[in-house]
Amino acid sequence: MKNAISWFEIPATNYERAKSFYATVLDTKITDHHMENTKYGMFTYDENNNGVGGGLVEMEGAKPSAEGVTIYLNGGDDLSAPLSRVEQSGGKIIMPKTNIGENGFMAQILDTEGNKVALHSWN
Questions:
Q1: What residue spans of 15-112 are helical by DSSP H?
Q2: Which of 14, 32, 65, 122 has a 20 to 30 A CA-CA distance from 100?
Q3: How far apart are CA 12 and CA 42, in angstroms?
């Protein structure tokens, strides 16, 4: 097994709002791949290298939550940059940039949908 995670999905009650939030905070593109009765968008990932990737999903049964599993998203070179865009994009910082020693830095946020997610960077 190359990675413990191969794919993740973040539930949304308002796909366009969630897409705008993550695209702005992570400074990335989210590509629409809607299906019947499902609004779906994929985060950028390395398709040629079978890299870990994920998506946003608005569909029946996909319920945002601040409890349960925590996904750590790539915060880029320095968490300060994405964290500076969280609140202006409608989210909330619930744990500021925190030094985790040899493992870099982490922070936790609530997105516009009410999901708790974490960000990680080495600086």
A1: 15-25, 80-86
A2: 65
A3: 13
CB atoms < 10 A from the CB of 33, how many?
12
Q: What span, in angstroms and rounded, lies between the C-alpha atoms of 20 and 33?
A: 15
**Where would I find the H helices in 1-123?**
15-25, 80-86
Distance of alpha carbon 116 from alpha carbon 101, whole angstroms:
22
What is the per-residue pLDDT across 35-86, written as a single tens digit (0 to 9) for each?
999 999 999 887 776 678 899 999 999 999 999 999 999 999 999 999 999 9
The CATH architecture to which 7-121 belongs is Roll (3.10)
Q: Which residue is associated with the tokens 């992570």? A: 26
Q: How far apart are CA 104 and CA 70, in angstroms?
A: 17
